[in-house]
């Protein structure tokens, strides 16, 4: 399996957007503004790539608490993110860029480095990030013309303070182009970004994808105190179950990745629902059910892993069509989708949750078996889980 790193990071960046309660596309818009600045500044191609990939990952260290550009604590997610990306392919190249992407040109940032002491790539990411934040904030109350004028004035006022005057000057040149604004507003199509990608776009294999999936599973599991081992637990059970089922190592690794990323869409669910100690209302359950939709939407955007996307997103479907999000039936669900549903249910039943203590192994098996008899869960998959060393 070979995947385009650009498409992968672009897709996964959507999960970071919903985590920090932004509209989809923040990282893509930052990537667009940053790469346009880099091209105008005649930056070397390998440095361009660092900027491009860093743009997709710059907010990876954010928690589920929205931090806007006025926050005094932006350094927290910058520092956290710089550590997290080290576990990703080429991540050591992005680490310092992410660490310093909120440092002010005049040295008034958290790390108190100034001017050319700040990595140039970080300077560009910072300006591009603030461009998008400012645009989203101002455009709520102003028309397009007023928004553009306000942004232009704000960046010129901050030149020499927050931002490198040279980079601000280049931004001013870009803002004179109507195409720049229109491309920025159409961030949701790959066609806008594709022309700015190096011909030597980085390709990753199954092992690199596994590393990235582990990083994102940490983000997923850390969202709630009660699910801090959930994704990892499912991935291990699913991997072992796939091998027992007779699948080869490559297929088992893909199943493991599906387990790591199956709850990616839960980043869109408020913690007050995830951590609610009582039974969910119908409205709250409706919101919970959306997480599988988001999981599939994000993973399908990567391209080349449609099977993983299906397995990850189908873990709440039922054989009788009573599951979600698509109401699929047994005829629609392949063996691995059926297996993932049992793995998810077993892991959930044996974990402590806000409203109950986790069940013992035999109690969890018995509970799932009742659903097998109701034709909701696959019996063969349950038999395979019984063979897994847990």
From TrEMBL:
Residue span, HD domain: 23-134, 227-339
The record's listing under Pfam families reads:
HD, HD_5
The HD-GYP domain covers 205-390
TM segment ranges:
none
Q: What's the superkingdom here?
A: Bacteria
The family database entries (SMART domains) matched by this protein are listed as: HDc (SM00471)
Q: What NCBIfam families does the record tag this protein with?
A: HDIG
The name on file for this protein is Nucleotidyltransferase with HDIG domain
Species this chain originates from: Thermoanaerobacterium butyriciformans
């Amino acid at each position: 399996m070979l995947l385009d790193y650009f498409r992968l990071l672009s897709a996964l960046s959507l999960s970071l957007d919903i985590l920090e309660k932004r509209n989809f596309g923040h990282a893509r818009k930052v990537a667009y503004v940053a790469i346009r600045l880099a091209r105008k500044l005649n930056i070397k191609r390998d440095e361009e790539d660092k900027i491009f990939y860093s743009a997709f990952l710059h907010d990876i260290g954010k928690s589920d608490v929205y931090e806007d550009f006025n926050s005094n604590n932006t350094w927290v997610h910058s520092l956290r993110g710089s550590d997290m990306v080290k576990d990703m392919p080429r991540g050591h190249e992005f680490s310092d860029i992410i660490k310093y992407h909120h440092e002010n040109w005049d040295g008034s940032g958290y790390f108190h480095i100034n001017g050319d002491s700040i990595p140039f790539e970080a300077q560009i990411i910072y300006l591009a990030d603030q461009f998008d934040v400012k645009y989203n904030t101002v455009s709520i109350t102003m028309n397009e013309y007023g928004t553009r004028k306000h942004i232009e004035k704000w960046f010129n006022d901050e030149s020499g303070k927050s931002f490198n005057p040279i980079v601000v000057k280049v931004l001013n040149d870009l803002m004179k182009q109507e195409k720049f604004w229109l491309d920025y507003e159409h961030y949701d199509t790959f066609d806008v970004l594709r022309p700015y990608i190096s011909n030597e776009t980085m390709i990753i294999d199954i092992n690199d994808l596994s590393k990235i999936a582990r990083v994102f599973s940490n983000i997923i599991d850390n969202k709630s105190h009660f699910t801090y081992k959930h994704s990892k637990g499912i991935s291990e059970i699913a991997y072992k179950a796939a091998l027992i089922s007779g699948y080869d190592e490559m297929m088992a690794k893909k199943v493991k990745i599906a387990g790591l990323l199956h709850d990616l869409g839960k980043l869109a669910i408020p913690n007050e629902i995830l951590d609610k100690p009582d039974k969910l209302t119908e409205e709250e359950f409706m919101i919970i059910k959306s997480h599988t939709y988001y999981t599939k939407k994000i993973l399908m955007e990567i391209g080349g892993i449609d099977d993983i996307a299906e397995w990850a997103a189908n873990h709440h479907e039922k054989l009788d069509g009573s599951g979600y999000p698509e109401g699929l039936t047994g005829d629609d669900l392949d063996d691995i989708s059926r297996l993932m549903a049992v793995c998810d249910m077993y892991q959930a039943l044996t974990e402590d949750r806000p409203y109950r203590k986790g069940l013992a192994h035999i109690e969890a098996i018995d509970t799932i078996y009742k659903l097998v008899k109701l034709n909701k869960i696959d019996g063969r998959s349950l038999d395979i889980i019984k063979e897994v060393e847990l």
